[in-house]
Specification:
heterotrimer; A mainly alpha (545); B mainly alpha (542); C mainly alpha (203); A: 545 residues; 23 helices; 77% helix; B: 542 residues; mainly alpha; two-stranded antiparallel sheet; 3% strand; disordered C terminus; quinone binding (chain A); NADH-Q_OxRdtase_suN/2 (chain A); EC 7.1.1.- (chain A); ND/Mrp_TM (chain A)
Chain lengths: 545, 542, 203
């Protein structure tokens, strides 16, 4: 194999966005080495942000690429992966905006923080497009190990250490389980590692209904569910969220989670179409548990970060509705929800960071009376939280609406109704925080707020925080009302992805025929019931005079 | 003409919302600029709505007018489509009037004025949006937008138990609104065509069980808002704890959203289910009337008494909706309008009294008549209007409902007799509690709160607000056509629409009954009794 | 059964017995140093099994990396810490042990049933044998290029992360004082840290 033909086969143009991130990463490391820590803190974050934005721009040009398969089947830069990579890169950029001041103030060095964060981003971006088990595993580990390091970054804080250790132990065992599942897939398919060929090989080997495939599926789901923090694989979430540096939590809850969902779609749709009833059933269970447990336990939280941890578990449950449906609209609603979730959740975290920087606490009770001292922060946090709760006309409402719309379209009535009920529950705890900030009288103000220092945006690192805050606020308020481009983007990303289209076209027939009594069958029964009733019902003999 | 193509309704909805966004950046130190600004926007919007209706709206046309429709999110099928007809037009005007007046009534708000007026303007938009929306999702969106402002308005500027009241309000309403969204999704996906447009949804042919289910869901959602008896418990707390301007809007406009939505969706879109549910509505209406009146009588808190009286009055709206007659439907709308004027006036006057005496407990009042003669006079007029004294709007509305229900040919005579009798009982209790309220407050010995307080009579601003509400009350009372002829054609259309569904439903259940078409129907009153569609349900009242 | 097969089976039996025995020892022995050494035994036995499977490169890597690096590191860590501490026996500890045993036995039964019952699609290609290094290299630079390169980024980052975690922080005090007043204190700011190992040196 000569070099020229290899270069053609590699089709390396598809990973230009990742290459930009990598170059940025190297620039940050090397420049920090050369010019020293004090000087580099002045501008390395901006290099990183510029690099990430450039990567997003490069992704824009990847949108309509003719041949998305690259690296001889290792990487699939299809439209779906482009969207997810964009979400991850944007979340990293926003995380850097909010972390500059935080890292400076916590007395740790900024360049290393950014390096590790960029590596995590790189891992997440590769994970979104990996089409082969080895690439999936390596990028998953890149993301995970960087996340462990970030979690323990403020190493003199015992809580951060505890969080990192917990995350490392649970994460390592979950990725070991995932690896076991992947090796089973390799064995069952007779030595295939490409996701797209695995299922065909398994089917031709006559192992479509084998117990081995089901075990591989369960193990793979265990790995994915850990990344997206779905109940019952969520135990690490509250402690890790509480202990880690807040910007890291922001990245974990958006970027890392988006990468997990990208992996979930790709792996489940392309590698496990033979057991799609089973994985839909398992994911339905996980979604129900996540929605109920995440939202109910969040009611009892007193720490803001724990509250957001449980709320993010609940939010993951909502997003999983879209995954289970197995329709065009289901996948697009997932993508759309993750896009608006990016704005609102990162906005909320920006506000929390700002508050923590001024007061040194993240107890919900300490937010009492903040409106008097800092109206902008109050407004931004209220808008982001209400958007997470799904109050119109904010972005979160449209996200949930689309998910429920898609759910109803696919006939998943119980899931939709459960989602609605749990989002009402979530409104209760989000509005509790809003109430704490807005409603409290001046005399009920908490001590932290009484000693609240006046806002000084000129301190180093405060300006980016302000930019992040205001842009998240604007995006959260307006992304819903002017959501048409986002909807189009989400829909196109699904329609232009051959993998999903193929799966949707193919999976229709077997679903109708085979399978034991599963939820989807019961649902389809309901549908037929309704339609027969409709046929019987008499036509209205109404005359409009 | 240029102005016909002007997007009047969109302007009306968006003007306060957009204007509210500028409140945080207004240069203002004492909150004075903000209130003038908000009031100006309110007046402007109200004036625009009056102008738009008077110049563009044809009162003789029962169709939707001033319609606009823009594609909003085509992927999900959401449109921004607004239009008004005879049901929504008066309510839009009412919302403008009451909200503007309540902003004027809130002139004294010292605490966080920016936030207050911001929320008021957002609510203003949401109310008009609810009444104008022609798309189910848009309707739901507007319905929900109003949630958080009301919550904050109650929980900041309220009484002692305001947090409890506000939380109760938001939980009830949020849980209720789940049903709206579910119903919207269910109806939109029914059949072959996916649409959220209310008109197209109304034309779909639903199966009867489906229609009944959706009707029941919507009834719960709107029953919370209206409120209907077992779902009403948030209302006395919310109305009792909210400050006077907020109570004015709550009682004046928000309750009407429930009644409006019942007519717009349950009757217009689900007429067959309405034929089944109408007797239930009538019974619930009676329960509302009597229960509200009795409970009101038991209250010692001025605002809670008025709140329960609202429940009682909204019972008449239910009765009118259930009547299947033009007159009844007309009365229901008129009752909503009239209550939308009377209740804000009463709450406003209660606010004045509270402002002077710092108590709402009627035991602490008494003998106010000497100190506040003008207030006394105004209060008396409003109470008279509320207890349906002839010559006031309340009387006309309730009378129309009674007449409509009595002449309804959809019920058996026994059922009608019992309903009318019980409603009349409620009507008798109303004066008792209102007059005793007047007596406790204004006559007799001076209560301890009155003795202590420095009591001033109404200021010109307050008199102006009361007058703005009282004039239409008396005007409608003396010449009801003033109001009714603006929407008459529409209520006639709705009533016949609902009435037409009855024989269809009856026919479905009892195949041997002859089917009546509209042409064959004898005039009201002497019609052969239609079997009520669901005999088991009404076995007891027959 | 010819001689070669017999040798293979016998070697497999010996290696498997070694591996299982050592692994059980790792888990059950009280002294952590013994456990660490036995872990080395497990790794070496696994390397032997790799050899039996014609995977000579993997076997060599196993010995070099796991025994030579990982296991030695573990031993270093144990010896550096050198903290003698008697663990309090947990009350009703046997319940946990029993539960663990049940779960492990269940998973073992499930997996072994699966392995036995599945008609595996075994690759028919002839093993590369001595040329395996060449084959692996070819794969690394053709169809596994992406994960190979990504792994280098991963290693770089792990290096940086290790340095970050291990190095001593010098807080520039003047900078910290300049920008921050008393209220600006993060929960992540250092608290009173318990100095590790101080007690022993004092005593």
């Amino acid at each position: 194999m000569d070099f020229a033909s290899l270069a053609v086969q590699l089709n390396a143009g598809t990973i230009v966005p990742e290459a930009i991130v990598l170059i940025t990463l190297m620039t940050v490391v090397v420049s920090d080495l050369i010019i020293g820590r004090q000087a580099s803190a002045q501008w390395t974050p901006y290099i990183a942000i510029a690099g990430l934005l450039a990567s997003v721009v490069a992704l824009f040009y990847q949108w309509d690429v003719a041949n998305p398969i690259s690296f001889i089947g290792e990487f699939n830069g299809d439209a779906l992966s482009v969207v997810f990579r964009g979400i991850i890169a944007l979340s990293a950029a926003t995380t850097i905006l909010m972390s500059i001041r935080y890292v400076i103030q916590s007395g740790t060095s900024l360049a290393e923080f950014i390096t590790i964060l960029l590596t995590a981003t790189l891992g997440g971006m590769f994970l979104s497009g990996s089409d082969e088990l080895v690439a999936v595993y390596v990028s998953l580990e890149t993301l995970s190990i960087s996340s462990y390091l970030l979690t323990g970054y403020t190493k003199r804080d015992p809580r951060s250490n505890e969080a990192a250790l917990k995350y490392l132990l649970i994460g390592a065992s979950s990725s070991a389980i995932f690896l076991y599942g992947a090796s089973l897939l390799y064995g069952l398919s007779g030595g295939e590692t490409r996701l797209s060929t695995i299922s065909a090989s398994i089917a031709s080997a006559g192992l479509a209904q084998s117990i081995g495939l089901v075990i591989a599926l369960v193990f793979a789901i265990a790995g994915i569910a850990f990344k997206i923090a779905a109940v019952p694989f969520h135990q690490w979430t509250p402690d890790v969220y509480e202990g880690s540096p807040t910007p890291v939590v922001a990245f974990l809850s958006v970027g890392s989670k988006a990468a997990g969902f990208a992996l979930a779609i790709r792996l489940l749709v392309t590698a496990f179409p033979l057991v799609s009833e089973q994985w839909q059933l398992v994911m339905t269970t996980l979604a129900i548990l996540s929605m109920v447990l995440g939202n109910v336990v969040a009611l009892a939280q007193t720490s803001m970060k724990r509250l957001l941890a449980y709320s993010s578990i609940g939010q993951a449950g909502f997003v999983m509705i879209g995954l289970i449906l197995g329709t065009d609209a289901g996948y697009s609603s997932m993508v759309f929800y993750l896009m608006v979730y990016l704005f609102m959740n990162l906005g909320a975290f920006t506000c929390i960071i700002l508050f923590t920087l001024r007061t040194g606490t993240d107890q919900i009770s300490e937010y009492a009376g903040l409106y008097q001292k800092d109206p902008l922060l109050t407004l931004a946090l209220s808008v982001c939280l209400l958007s997470l709760g799904g109050i119109p006309p904010l972005a979160g409402f449209f996200g949930k609406l689309y998910l429920f719309w898609a759910g109803w379209q696919a006939g998943a009535y119980p899931l939709v109704i459960l989602g609605l009920v749990t989002s009402v529950i979530s409104i209760y705890y989000y509005i509790r925080v809003v109430k704490m900030m807005v409603v409290k009288e001046p005399q009920e103000m908490s001590d932290s707020v009484k000693n609240y220092p006046p806002t000084d945006w000129t301190l180093p690192g405060m300006r980016p925080l302000q930019v992040g805050l205001v842009s998240a606020l604007i995006a959260t308020s307006l992304a819903g009302i002017f959501s048409n481009p986002l909807f189009t983007l989400a829909n196109d990303s699904v329609l232009k992805t051959p993998m999903l289209q193929q799966a949707l076209g193919r999976s229709k027939a077997p679903i109708a025929k085979q399978m034991a009594p599963t939820i989807s069958q019961q649902l389809s029964l309901q549908i037929t019931e309704v339609s027969t009733k409709k046929a019987v019902s008499l036509p209205k003999s109404m005359v409009h005079s | 003409m240029v102005s016909t193509s002007f997007p009047w309704l969109t302007t009306l909805i968006l003007l306060p919302l957009v204007a509210s966004l500028f409140i945080p950046v207004l240069p203002d130190k004492q909150g004075k600029t903000v209130r003038w600004y908000a009031l100006g926007i309110g007046l402007l919007d109200f004036a625009l709505s009056v102008y738009a209706v008077s110049s563009q709206y044809n009162f003789q046309n029962s169709d939707f007018q001033l319609a606009e429709s823009y594609v909003w999110v085509p992927q999900v099928g959401i449109n921004w489509s607004v239009a008004i007809d005879g049901i929504s037009m008066p309510l839009v005007i009412l919302a403008g009037l009451v909200t503007t007046l309540s902003m004027l009534a809130a002139w004294q708000v010292k605490e966080k004025p920016r936030l207050f007026y911001f929320l008021m303007l957002v609510m203003y938009s949401a109310q008009i949006g609810v009444f104008c929306a022609q798309d189910m999702i848009q309707f739901f969106l507007m319905w929900e937008v109003e949630l958080v402002p009301v919550y904050i308005l109650i929980s900041i500027w309220g009484g002692q138990k305001r947090l409890y009241a506000a939380t109760k309000f938001i939980l009830y309403t949020a849980i209720g609104s789940i049903f709206i969204l579910v119903a919207a999704l269910a109806m939109a996906f029914y059949g072959d065509v996916m649409t959220f447009n209310m008109h197209e949804l109304g034309l779909k042919q639903y199966s009867l069980p489906f229609e009944l289910l959706v009707y029941a869901g919507l009834l719960i959602a709107y029953g919370v808002k209206l409120p209907i008896f077992p779902l009403h418990t948030w209302l006395p707390d919310a109305h009792g704890e909210a400050s006077a301007p907020v109570s004015m809007i709550l009682a004046g406009v928000l309750l009407k959203m429930g009644g409006y939505a019942l007519i717009r969706m349950n009757i217009e879109m689900l007429p067959h289910a309405h034929a089944y549910f109408a007797p239930v509505l009538a019974i619930l209406g009676i329960v509302n009337i009597i229960y509200g009146a009795l409970a009101s009588f038991a209250q010692r808190n001025l605002k809670r008494r008025m709140a329960y009286s609202s429940i009682s009055h909204m019972g008449f709206v239910l009765l009118g909706i259930a009547s299947f007659t033009e007159l009844g439907m007309n009365g229901a709308v008129l009752q909503m309008l009239s209550h939308g004027l009377i209740a804000p006036a009463l709450f406003f006057l209660a606010g004045i009294v509270y402002d002077r005496t710092h108590t709402l407990d009627m035991d602490d009042m008494g003998g106010l008549a000497k100190k506040m003669p003008t207030t006394f006079a105004l209060f008396t007029i409003c109470s008279m209007a509320s207890l349906a004294l002839p010559g006031m709007s309340g009387f006309v509305g309730e009378l129309a409902v009674f007449l409509g229900f009595t002449t309804s040919d959809a019920y058996t005579a026994t059922f009608k007799g019992v309903v009318v009798l019980l409603a009349a009982v409620g009507l008798i209790i109303t004066p008792i509690y209102l007059l005793s309220m007047l007596r406790d407050m204004f006559y007799g010995k001076e209560g301890k709160a009155v003795v202590q307080a420095v009591v001033l009579d109404v200021k010109p601003r307050e008199f102006f607000i009361a007058a703005c509400l009282l004039l239409p009350i008396i005007g409608i009372g003396l010449y009801p056509k003033l109001a009714t002829e603006t929407y008459d054609v529409k209520t006639v259309a709705i009533a016949s629409h609902a009435r037409n569904a009855v024989p269809v439903v009856a026919n479905q259940t009892f195949k041997d009954q002859p089917q009546f078409s509209i042409a064959e129907q004898p005039p009201f009153g002497i019609a052969p009794k239609m079997p009520i569609a669901n005999p088991e349900l009404l076995g007891m009242v027959r | 059964m010819n001689l070669a097969e017999g040798v293979q089976i016998v070697s497999f039996g010996i290696l498997a017995a070694m591996m299982l025995g050592a692994a059980i020892g790792v888990v059950l022995l009280e002294n952590i140093v013994y456990s660490a050494f036995l872990l080395g035994g497990v790794f070496i036995s696994i390397a032997g099994i790799y050899l039996l499977l014609n995977a000579d490169f993997v076997a060599a890597a196993q010995v070099l990396i796991y025994v030579g690096a990982v296991n030695v590191l573990i031993l270093f860590a144990i010896m550096l810490v050198n903290k003698r501490q008697d663990f309090q026996p947990l009350r009703r500890g046997w319940i946990r042990k029993a539960a663990t045993a049940v779960v492990c036995a269940g998973i073992f039964a499930l997996l072994s049933t699966m392995i036995v019952s599945t008609p595996w699609a075994i690759s028919t290609a002839t093993p590369a044998g001595d040329a395996s290094v060449v084959v692996i290299g070819l794969h690394f630079f053709s169809d596994f290029l992406l994960p190979f390169e990504l792994a280098s980024v991963l290693l770089l980052m792990a290096l940086i992360g290790a340095v970050v975690l291990a190095r001593r922080e010098f807080l520039p005090d003047d900078e910290a004082d300049r920008a921050q007043v008393e209220a600006l204190r993060l929960p992540e700011r250092p608290r009173e840290l318990v100095p590790s190992g101080r007690d022993e040196t004092v005593n």
